[in-house]
Amino acid sequence: PRVLLIDEFHFSRNSKYKILMNFENNLIIDIVESRTHDIMSDYLFKIDLEERKKVEYICTDMSFILKIYFPNSTLLVDHFHVTRLINDQLNHTRKRIMCKYAKNKKSREYRLLKHRYKILLKSKNSIDNETFKYDKIMECHVTENMILETLLSFDDELRQAYNAKEEYLIFDQVSKIILIKERNSMQ
After folding, report:
1. Structural domain harbouring 122
2. What number is the average pLDDT over the span 174-185?
3. Same domain, 86 and 147
4. CA–CA distance, 74 with 86 (Å, rounded to integer)
5. CA–CA separation, 19 vs 126, rounded Å?
6. Last residue of one domain, picked from the residues 77, 106, 123
7. How confident is the model at residue 163, as a pLDDT?
8. Mean pLDDT score of the chain, rounded to an integer?
9. pLDDT at residue 156, as a whole number
10. End-to-end C-alpha distance for the chain, whole angstroms
11. Would 183 be classed as within a structural domain?
């Protein structure tokens, strides 16, 4: 295909597969049992080089090694995987900052970072700014936005990581809107 989608999926805990799909017509090309890089490598090298050269785009996870097999292709990283990577990095930053407060595990900072971290992973657009609920850690009625701002006040690095995540989500949303408009104008 001109645009190849390669993604991983699991039937069970112990079985890991790669699905190869023609992205333009949504037809599955093949399903490869791929527990290891070797299996996938053997499979891809069995495809004639001239066929592999016809692939212009590969949409995949973060497997940059695929460029070796498809020399004329442009690698497109699936936005789901980028979002997951950004959230993982934000969470890693949160844990590192939480360790600074670990000497006093009863401190408000430590308990909020440990138990209210999911608010950091939510999109800013999804944060409730109006509903007040009693929070045991804050010991008062607060909105989700108030908890978020308290979390972000603990460390500038955490605020920067959160803002980077939000900037990517805005970029991703704008890109989707542009893509939809382009598709509609072609029809």
Report:
1. 81-176
2. 68
3. yes
4. 22
5. 33
6. 77
7. 96
8. 89
9. 97
10. 22
11. no
Is there a domain that residue 134 lies in?
yes
Give the 3-state secondary structure of residue 181.
helix
Cα dist from 43 to 8, 11, 33, 86, 134, whole Å: 15, 20, 10, 31, 57
Predicted TM-score of the model (pTM)? 0.70
On whether both 45 and 114 belong to a single domain, the answer is no
Q: Are residues 111 and 150 in the same domain?
A: yes
Q: What is the pLDDT of residues 35-84, one digit of tens each?
A: 678 888 899 999 999 999 999 999 887 776 778 899 999 888 878 888 88
Q: Which two tokens stand for residue 174?
A: 């704008």
Contact 39, 32 (CB under 8 A): yes
Section 119-143 average pLDDT: 96
- Examine the domain organization and report whether 164 and 97 are in the same domain: yes
Residue 16 corresponds to which tokens in the numbers above? Answer: 């890991």
Look at the chain and report how many structural domains it folds into.
Answer: 2
Tokens of 83: 């979002």
